Amino acid sequence: MIASPLVTADVLIAYSAYFVGTASPGPSNLAIMSLAMSAGRKSALTFALGVMSGSFFWALLASLGLSAVLATYSECLVAIRIAGGLYLLWLGFKSARSAFGAQKPLATNNGRDESLKRLYLRGLLLHLTNPKAILVWLSIVSLAMSPAGGTSHTQQVVLGCMLIGACVFSSYAVLFSTGSARRIYLSTRRWLDGSLAVMFGIAGIKLLTSKN
Length: 212
Description:
Number of helices: 9
Shape: globular
Structural class: mainly alpha
Order of helices and strands: HHHHHHHHH
């Protein structure tokens, strides 16, 4: 019996697809970026940890056969989509309020303005109410399930993608919390927050009006 190779074409495709999807600017990355520039590295990393936890939760369910559950209880995905759309609209409202509000000094107490627990829960909620995250993980698991690979390759892909996600989300938190990034935020705060408000608003409306 010949052992299957450790890294197959299906595994590489799954890794590449997940990296592109995770690294592309989306609600989670934009929120981490904004928080890193406005509140500092510790706050952003805590928020990113919440996002990672939500992502890992969907990864676990996808690897355990979430697609079969969603096929039977499709209203679950509808409920998640509605909750996610409303939450994105709330984030858009907060960003718009920040854009039109008075200038506030950047946090210098490394995350104490907002409790770390609350930041973690905010990140967790953002990803748990993101139906795109569910569908991405379902597609990644499907790509990994080749006849030669079987369950072992599925587990390998899930673990590998988890590592990729952790690197991407934490990189956003670290890179955008540098002094230069925070100075840019100060000079373009209204424009950045206004752009975030528009992006969150469009994403929320799209989720709420989607029929798929």
